[in-house]
Design a protein that fits this description.
about 55% strand; mainly beta; elongated; single chain; C1q_dom; about 110 residues; 5-stranded antiparallel β-sheet; 3-stranded antiparallel β-sheet
Length: about 110
């Protein structure tokens, strides 16, 4: 979940819900999703999954013990049905400072 200091920079159509941190697809199509999650002053490994309807699609890891900041990033083209839900899930570890140093982006590439 996003912390209270999170913000949405662009949300055309309002299909991303800031309260639940979930994007709900308005139509069937091919979507592009990417994310960058930054762990700050945290010596444990984090694993972040991009989820589609409660199923993990892709993951990213950050596990270097000797740095104060490290990013876990990934991206995917994904076939999405109307009303599918897409969101990030912190599967392992904790994010000191919450999600405020992180981004989650998506857009429709090709409608079907």
């Amino acid at each position: 979940m996003f912390q209270k200091d999170s913000c949405v920079l662009v949300n055309i159509g309002n299909h991303f819900d800031l309260k639940t941190s979930v994007f709900q697809a308005p139509r069937r199509g091919i979507y592009s999703f990417s994310f960058h999650v930054v762990k700050v002053y945290n010596r444990q490994t984090i694993q972040v999954n991009l989820m589609q309807n409660d199923y993990p699609v892709i993951s990213a890891f950050a596990g270097d013990q000797d740095v104060t900041r490290e990013a876990a990033s990934n991206g995917v083209l994904l076939m999405v049905e109307r009303e599918d839900r897409v969101y990030l899930k912190l599967e392992r570890g904790t994010l000191m400072g919450g999600w405020k140093y992180s981004t989650f982006s998506g857009f429709l590439v090709f409608p079907l």
